[in-house]
Fold this protein.
Amino acid sequence: MRAALVLSAILFSTCALAENANTATGSGVVVGRHGEILTNSHVVEDCKSITAQLSSQKPQAATIIARDQKNDLAILQTQPFPASVAVFRLGAPLRAGDAIVVLGFPLSGILASTANLSVGIVSALAGLGDDARYVQISAPVQPGNSGGPLLDTSGHVVGIVTAKLNAMRVARFTGDIPQNVNFAIKAEVAQALLDSKNIAYETALSQKQLSSADVGDIARSFTVYIECQQVPPQSVLTSATAPNPLSDAPQPEPQIAIVPAPNSTTDETWHPGRSFRDCVDCPEMVVLPAGHFMMGSDVEERGSARNERPKHPVWVKAPLAVGKYHVTRGEYARFVQATGYAGEGKDCVGNFTTTKSWHDPGFPQSDRDPVVCVDWFDAKAYTAWLSRKTGKHYRLLTEAEWEYAARAGTTTARWWGDEIGRGHANCFDCGGQWGGEGRTSPVGSFAPNPFGLHDMLGNAYQWLEDCFAVGAYNTPSNDASVAQKTDECDQRSVRGGGWANSAWGVRSTYRWAFTTSYRVYNTGFRVARTP
């Protein structure tokens, strides 16, 4: 395999050479309803053509649509298979000693041509040199297992088989032959790649305890045999293909290269990245892929506060539609006109006065500016109206959903980087046309983040579903859809900062709160919708 560790000299890939010296074989996992297959990058190295075959079906031509050589992963595209797709495990993390099952197509042309099953345990939660991307497993694997699934006892994918220890090479150094030391890439590494490519996949909690035979039956419905017709190399033996497994000849030094839950409906509306409106007066929505991220900040992040720690993993388990922009003043006005909503009042706080309202927050606005001077109850009334009007489920975002949307796959303080820069957002010291202007800017005045969302940072704070708790991250939920303390509370979370904030308050992890009945001239909201 292709890899980047000094220790990789004592590993070799589990990709096999077929009888034809220019053909390499491996395994793969069907993860997407549209024919997406996950495998190892080294399985499809230097291929002039690739086929993927499920069970007794005919081989299908496959193309590479994404490669992550650093993590030894690749995504292939074929025509959709008339079969089930793999389900990634949610919930409890793997533990050393957990039982696991491996399925794949090892030693093509030597062993049985049907999928081979082996069993074992998780031996360690890291690979060579404590590489946290891997798990060490005792289940036997051979050349050809590369790219196949590592499964728990519920039949859920917890990793992708990658490499085995080169026993003969280790024996030359230690005088002892190690046994059953093999490795798999952790599922979260693979999920991150799928997330980055907006490929929907399925997840579920592992609750059933099945026999190894039953797990094998499940896995055969989504495990494919991959064949790679390689460009003829200078030498038949390359680091991408394992030599004859029966030979003890010196081995070439291979390199190791070792991160969204599925559409919950077949409606094409829910394809990640797609935008839609449910009605003429409804906000434009953008579908976000399911996925996971680390919520919160490190102490080293400039402006970081204690209530943003500790960092913790959170999963968005299904696609989620989020407003492309803040709800605008024009959209809110149509709600008030349609319903006669009487929740407004001239009690908006700003510039040391409470004589303003959403009609006139104290600075000029167009109907394309975000509505401000609305409290949490106003925002909830608007989402309830949208739900009644469309028959769909509209609501505010949770804190976790908001941060997932704001980060958009990034890990820096802001989606564009760690520094505030100039002209990226509307805040007091953001620079550019609107920086320090003392007013909102029309939505869409700045570039969108990688999810296609505008003004997730700056312009106006955004009301969220959660009750605010300073120590919420000490006992967090890993389910992004769960709001903190949904019982009665007098303070609700707001995120994103606004035009009046300094740079430290315009970060993806910055947390703040207002009293639920508090109307402020720099606070509005955006909406979410679920299928």
User: Anything to note?
Assistant: The domain at 268-530 is CATH 3.90.1580.10 (paralog of FGE (formylglycine-generating enzyme)). The mean pLDDT is 84. The longest helix spans residues 376-390.
